[in-house]
Amino acid sequence: MSAFLTVVRPGLFATIQDLGRFGFQELGMPVAGALDPVALRLANALVGNPQGMAGLEIALLGPVLRVDSPAVRIAAVGPLAMTLEREGEATRPLEPHRSHSLRQGDLLRLGAVDGASVAYLAVAGGFALAPVMGSLSIYVRAGIGPLGGRPLGQDDRLPLARDGAADGPPDEPDLELPQPPEYGVGPLRVVLGPQDDRFTEQALATFLSAAYHVGKQADRMGLRLEGPSLKHRGSADIPSDGLVTGSIQVPGNGQPILLLNDHQTAGGYTKIATVISADLPRAGRLRPGDRLSFQAVTVDEAEAIRRRQEQAISGWIRAIRPVRPAGGIDLEALYAENLISGTVDIVNGGSDLPLV
Amino acid sequence: MAAVDDDRVRSVGVEIRFTTAGDSAFNVEFGEAIDRATNARVMALHARLKAAPPPGLVETVPTFRSLLVVYDPVATGRREMQAAVEAALAGSNAAAAEGRLWRLPVCYDPDLGPDLAELADGLGLTVERVAELHGSAEYFVYMLGFMPGFGYMGDLPAELERPRRTEPRVRVPAGSVAVAGRLTTVYPWESPGGWHLIGRCPVPLYDAGRADPVLLTAGDRVRFEAVDRAAFDGIAQAVAAGRFDPASLRAAS
Question: Domain Carboxyltransferase spans what residues (chain A) (predicted)?
């Protein structure tokens, strides 16, 4: 049978994202993809998906989704409020950083994202949507990707690749990350260039010592930063060249722009530095008003930092474990058990559990 | 003072520079000027790396005078990737394959080219002469960027050279044929834009329904063919009805 998550209320800006649409930048096609790829990878790991599978990127305020499938396992990673409404039960909060087993008719209310710009929802098996140029990432500006290339809308139906029947054996427990992922604190690390030689010594020193904050113009394309002006040597313009996520371009007004995943593929402003790949998830989580500063590292250092980060991510994924009961009883596991088997299993040990 | 990465710039041959774009990309710069010879070297390296991608290469993005090399920093590293690119540079000098030649219809009706009269005035030319000059050249697609399918085409006849509009438009209609500096383009999407709009092309340069949604690729050549308003409307209707095959715009070189 067909199985869907149906959008009962769309929220403010939720899009399908995977790790990006690579290979088409030569045609002017932006990469797009998850602003916080680490969170998406972990959410996928919690529901047993390959790390790069597409999930739902939720900005600001999440959608309300109805489960129109016998069952589905979901997991959110990021600072997201969630509640579950199930017929005949009191509404209850669901925690991020663990999986939850949902059943037909459940209403999953994804609330405010608080503390970062985005959070991610993964569903076991992923979405049965047709990739565009090899990717399910939605690039809203040009309407590219599944769902017509736009954010979730009212009554959209997100088809599930798994119809729910095969969503793990009945006794498969939900899984949790022992600890939320750590992003580190302190300055965003950058490698100077490619046009750092087009800035004055004073501008470079200012860039690496001053505090900036994210202005109101902040979206998936980039963050306009506000702070001390950076002076060019000569013109701020160059013949347009390629851009990457994390490029920090400085137009003639001296105010830096940190480019994020939906950045255009090429641009004609000088770029003072590039955020290192390990710190892109932190950059992608920034919101208007957030303060930030920059620290220069070499490419060798950036590579070492990225390798350590990948080891940490592997470690977090290895540490994923069955949800442990808090305070002696795990209600979630109980609910999940009920969900998957369809009835309360009294015969096989259910009666040993304290009744609440 | 800022720490500068020792690896940031290294010369290979005379004028090639490697400039760093973080730990997952670098530029190979072949010069500063926007000219065909420089761009041809960019396209040749692009073609070579595409034909035989080194391990860890994600993609390469050709622009006017530089090639952006994007790699997976988990699978490889800067030193290995730069060495592979240097090897590709030192290898075969075969030029990139000759691009395709397209004949794009354009209607220079003032309704469809709202800047035509002003541009002609500023250049001291008649509207007809502007259209004639624009249609007289064969253009080269130096690069795509700004938005999917947006081609930067040169070289516009020198008589038509004018800087971008001082006040960019908030909305440029899709299909608008425009000029700025020594470049011309066709806007594939409705978007903001600061180029002078001199006409409209009825054939979409981006169409999600086509096997290759983006019509032009870097290295292609374009000739504009003036059509009157009736012909423009006819083609637009055929496109809307799905009866127009863009392959018919391919010309034998």
Answer: 26-312
Please compute, for residue B116, the number of CA atoms within 13 A of its CA located in the half-sphere on the CB side: 22
Q: Which residues pair with B68 in a beta bridge?
A: B27, B61
Please indicate whether, in this complex, the C-beta atoms of B7 and A298 are within 8 angstroms of each other: yes
The angle subtended at Cα B81 by Cα B50 and Cα B78, nearest 5°, is 140
Percentages helix, strand, coil for chain B, rounded to the nearest 5?
25, 30, 45
Angle between helices B78-90 and A299-318 (to 10 degrees): 120
Q: Which residues contact B170 (CB under 8 A, 6 or more apart)?
A: B192
Q: How are beta strands B221-226 and B101-106 bridged, if at all?
A: parallel
Cα separation of B7 and B20, whole Å?
A: 8
Domain A188-308: CATH superfamily, name plus number: Cyclophilin-like (2.40.100.10)
Give the closest residue to B76 by CA, choosing from B55, B49, B46. B55
The H or E element containing residue B106 is strand B101-106
Question: CA A164, A353, A123: angle at the middle one, nearest 5?
Answer: 20
Token pair of A234, please? 């000569």
Q: Which two tokens stand for residue B175?
A: 């299909």
Which B residues in the span 173-212 are in contact with A, Cβ-Cβ below 8 Å?
A: 189, 206, 208
Closest by Cα among B189, B197, B103, B90 to B147: B189
CB proximity B6 to A under 8 Å: yes
CB contacts under 8 A, B 140-169 vs A, are 143-150, 152
The answer, yes or no, to whether the previous bond of A288 is cis (omega within 30 of 0) is no
C-alpha R_g of chain B: 20
Among A73, A57, A62, A59, residue whose Cα is nearest residue A160: A73
Token pair in block for residue A202: 């004073």
Write out chain B's pLDDT in tens, 253 residues.
333 343 443 444 447 999 999 999 999 999 988 899 999 999 999 999 999 999 999 999 999 999 999 999 999 999 999 999 999 998 766 666 788 999 999 999 999 999 999 999 999 999 999 999 999 999 999 999 988 999 999 999 999 999 988 888 989 999 999 999 999 999 999 988 899 999 999 999 998 888 888 999 999 999 999 999 999 999 999 999 999 999 899 987 6
Sequence-distant contacts of A349-355: CB under 8 A, at least 24 apart: A353/A329, A354/A328, A354/A329
Return the axis-axis angle of helices B116-123 and B127-134, rounded to nearest 10°: 100
Contact A302 B148 (CB under 8 A): no
Closest CA relative to residue A271, chosen from B164, B19, B72, B163? B19
Count the neighbouring beta carbons within 10 Å of the beta carbon of residue A94.
20
Amino acid identity of residue A44, one-letter, is: N
Domain ranges of chain A: 4-176, 188-308
Contact between chains at B59 and A25 (C-beta distance less than 8 A) = yes
